[in-house]
Specification:
The complex is a heterodimer of chains A (about 240) and B (about 240). Chain A is mainly alpha-helical. Chain A contains nine helices and three strands; from the N terminus they run ααββαααβαααα. A two-stranded antiparallel ribbon of chain A has the order 1-2. In chain A, helix 1 runs parallel beside helix 5, helix 5 crosses helix 6 and helix 6 runs parallel beside helix 9. The longest helix of chain A is centred in the middle third of the chain and has 37 residues. The radius of gyration of chain A is 21 Å and the shape is elongated. In chain B, a hairpin with a 2-residue loop joins strand 5 and strand 6. The chains are: A mainly alpha (about 240), B alpha/beta (about 240). Strand 3 of chain A pairs parallel with strand 9 of chain B, so a sheet runs across the interface.
Chain lengths: ~240, ~240
């Protein structure tokens, strides 16, 4: 039997995004627990820097966003890979979907979750700050309490990038061998290029780094959709 | 290679392990419905917001961080101080910087000075000054603490005072053992970026060689004996 109702891709993706965002919400709860474990419980001293001057030795314990961002980025990478696994793909059968629409929906869910991850990250940071204030009443220094928009954008783009790489990796593993190998090689080249030029990348302003990350994320997303499109069962 | 492994793969594996463990647990414990999870996450975000509001309204740091502009101004001031000292002019040592004064008594017309410390008194600038209004057999040692700025924080109150005393008719100046100060610094930025940028641009360094000054005021009739060559004359 064939349905005569013609549903556009946009409508399907919209419905899937709503449905998936609710279905995979447990991923966000695990991020909260990860942030509490790594950000609040494990990183008790923060990163330290020491100075010496004459007979005075000064030790600074710096509490910044680094740990929270690293945990969030790794979380995004793992979640994105899990989104493309068989267990999650079986869930797609519950709604009208194709591989392409599912990939697009996954991308949107990843973007939404990256945004929520940034908010969770900030929340954990302030809880950590409160913990320090309650423990160390005398020796704390608040340089700035507000997180600048450029840092927020950088955090969002970093989480998004890791999510995009995870989605691309996960999708390429399921894709045809002809695509799988070049994509993985391309990713490895990209990662090695980034690690070689990491210092020069860090020297750029936050906004430029964010734009670069977002650009690479979009590229990864496009490749994900393309691979998903090539892997459509009906087209094989 | 080992460092890369520990820096990148270890946290990734740890996050993955905890994430998978949590997923397995949440599947077994079925109390976490999407609605409850949403309430939990919202509650956590509200908790974070409350923490932020509490910090903004009630937490006040007693330690102030100087802005780059204020540090530049201070540096100019210290440069001027250096010029004064090179010209043997003590007028830069005002009451504001005075930290402690010792009144010491000695016999005879000579006062030998011995500076003890880890690196032979390099922690202090020691100057001697003739004063007409001081009685013979009496020396006044004054310690001046000028600003010591490290990473934007004024640490002049934390610098340990020297130990100044008379023994066997000799004036001893001893620097105390190293003092450790710890600070918790809240910086809502990415330290890894800040650190790399600072290394590349060279951190802002201030000349602190004129921060700790000891002035020995003696009557004109006294001869100061300085066998270590650390004490210079100042007007």
């Amino acid at each position: 039997m064939q349905s005569l109702t013609n549903i556009s891709l946009k409508t399907i993706v919209k419905k899937q995004v709503k449905w998936k965002a609710k279905l995979y919400i447990s991923a966000l709860s695990s991020l909260v627990i990860l942030q509490i474990i790594f950000g609040i419980l494990l990183s008790s001293s923060g990163s330290t820097s020491g100075y010496g001057r004459g007979n005075l030795s000064v030790q600074f314990s710096i509490y910044s966003l680094d740990m929270f961002l690293i945990v969030s980025a790794f979380w995004a990478f793992i979640v994105a890979i899990l989104f493309t696994t068989k267990a999650y793909r079986i869930d797609d059968l519950s709604v009208i979907s194709s591989r392409t629409s599912s990939a697009i929906a996954n991308i949107f869910v990843m973007i939404i979750y990256s945004f929520i991850a940034v908010v969770i990250m900030i929340s954990t940071f302030y809880l950590k700050v409160l913990e320090i204030l309650l423990v160390e009443k005398q020796s704390f220094i608040i340089e700035n309490l507000f997180i600048s928009p450029s840092i927020l954008l950088l955090c969002f783009s970093s989480i998004c990038l890791f999510g995009a790489i995870g989605l691309l990796l996960g999708t390429s593993f399921k894709g045809p061998t002809l695509i799988k190998v070049p994509i993985i090689v391309l990713l490895l080249i990209f990662i090695s290029l980034v690690s070689i030029n990491l210092n020069s990348l860090m020297m750029l302003p936050d906004l430029i780094i964010s734009v670069i990350y977002l650009f690479v994320s979009v590229l990864c997303f496009c490749l994900t959709i393309w691979i998903a499109d090539k892997s459509e069962v009906s087209r094989k | 290679m080992k460092a890369t492994f520990f820096l990148f793969f270890m946290p990734l594996l740890l996050v993955a392990a905890i994430f998978l463990l949590l997923s397995k647990l949440s599947k077994k414990i079925k109390i976490w419905t999407p609605k409850r999870i949403m309430i939990g996450i919202t509650g956590y975000l509200v908790l974070g917001l409350t923490a932020f509001l509490y910090i903004s309204f009630f937490a006040e740091s007693k330690i102030q961080v100087l802005s780059p502009f204020e540090m530049k101004q201070l540096e100019k001031k210290l440069e001027q101080i250096q010029k004064y000292d090179l010209e043997n002019d003590s007028s830069y040592l005002t009451e504001d910087y005075k930290k402690k004064t010792w009144e010491l008594k000695y016999e005879g017309d000579t006062l030998p000075v011995i500076v003890n410390g880890d690196d032979s008194g390099s922690n202090y600038i020691i100057r001697m000054r003739y004063k007409d209004n001081i009685d013979s057999g009496k020396a006044i040692v004054t310690y001046y603490q000028l600003p010591v700025i490290l990473d934007g924080i004024d640490l002049s109150d934390k610098v340990p005072l020297p130990n100044v005393y008379m023994a066997h008719n000799e004036l001893f100046i001893e620097s105390l053992s190293e003092q450790q100060v710890n600070y918790d610094r809240i910086k809502p930025t990415l330290s890894i970026l800040d650190f790399n940028r600072e290394v590349e641009q060279e951190p802002y360094a201030m000349d602190y060689s004129y921060s700790n000054v000891l002035i020995i005021d003696i009557p004109r009739s006294t001869v100061l004996e300085d066998s270590q060559g650390l004490v210079q004359y100042i007007r």
